[in-house]
Amino acid sequence: MKKIHYMVYTTTILIMAAQGCKKPYLPGIVAVSSNYLVVEGVINTGSDSTSIRLSRTVPLSSTRQVKPEFGATVTILTDAGGNYPLSPAGNGYYKGPGLNLNSLAKYGLKIVTSGGKVYQSDMVVAKNSPPIDSVYYRIMNNGVQVYADTHDPANNTHYYRWDFSETYEFRSAFYSYDYFTQTPVDTVLSRPPSAQIFTCWRGDASYTIIVNTSAKLAKDIITNNAVAFVESTSEKLEARYSILVKQYAITADAFNYFQQL
């Protein structure tokens, strides 16, 4: 019995010693506060709106995930001398209505921060995306996979990017038939259909980078292109689900940039 007790005691000491040797790893980059300006968005030359998001980088050690850039002036420039200002929309977003611009012209973005710093992008020719051929889904073992396919008969696009927004209906676990009111006196009344809180709707946006290319193919065709996956346990599939997919034609440089991200 003394030998068994001694073995247990020794093992405990070794475990405590191993835990005591742990030290936090804090590389130099964690403490760097570069405060770089981050610009995200697409200049839409068609009838759809343009949305540009401005934010600042934060240290890897920070608990803050997003640092919006407020008070900036954001303007779309054209090579013909035109300019189209975007309006602040809150949380670092700057938006404008559909512009219906010449898709053969060149466009750039000019940003003046609240601190007076000026940033201006290169002027780039707009690229028109071919239509989306189809958006469809397949039922998998663990959920539903959504796809978006396309092709360019002119064989000119080759590089694509997608994003999407989801809207879905879900239901509360319990139905509320009545509600409590203190006007004119404390009482419980039946809940009318206009005040029901059983059926709810919610919307989500894509948070991943979705790109694909046909550059190495004989034809400019994208098939079986996965854009979204909904797990079988998700409340998104409880009642009704809808997805709106947007497709963009991008340059080879933009494709490589997104691939690096």
Radius of gyration: 27 Å
Biggest sheet architecture: 8 strands, antiparallel
- How many helices? The count is 2
| Beta content | 35-45%
Could you estimate the helical fraction of the residues in percent? 10-25%
Shape: globular
Terminal residue distance? 61 Å
Class by SSE composition: mainly beta
Any overview of this molecule?
- The protein has 261 residues and is mainly β.
- The chain has 2 domains: 97 residues, Immunoglobulin-like, CATH 2.60.40; 129 residues, no CATH class.
- It contains 2 helices and 18 strands.
- The strands form 4 sheets. Strands 1, 2, 3, 4, 5, 6, 7 and 8 form an 8-stranded antiparallel beta sheet that branches.
- The termini are far apart.
TL;DR?
The chain has 261 residues and is mainly beta. The chain has two domains: 97 residues, Sandwich (Immunoglobulin-like); 129 residues, no CATH class.
Brief descriptors of the model:
261 residues; mainly beta; 2 domains; 8-stranded antiparallel β-sheet; 4-stranded antiparallel β-sheet; 2 helices; 42% strand; disordered N terminus
Write the layout of secondary structure elements.
Layout lengths: L1 H19 L16 E6 L7 E7 L16 E6 L4 E8 L2 E4 L9 E7 L5 E3 L3 E2 L6 E8 L3 E9 L7 E13 L6 E4 L5 E4 L8 E7 L4 E4 L7 E2 L3 E6 L8 E10 L2 H9 L1
Antiparallel strand pairs: 1-2, 2-5, 3-4, 3-6, 4-5, 6-7, 6-8, 9-10, 10-16, 10-17, 11-14, 11-15, 11-18, 12-13
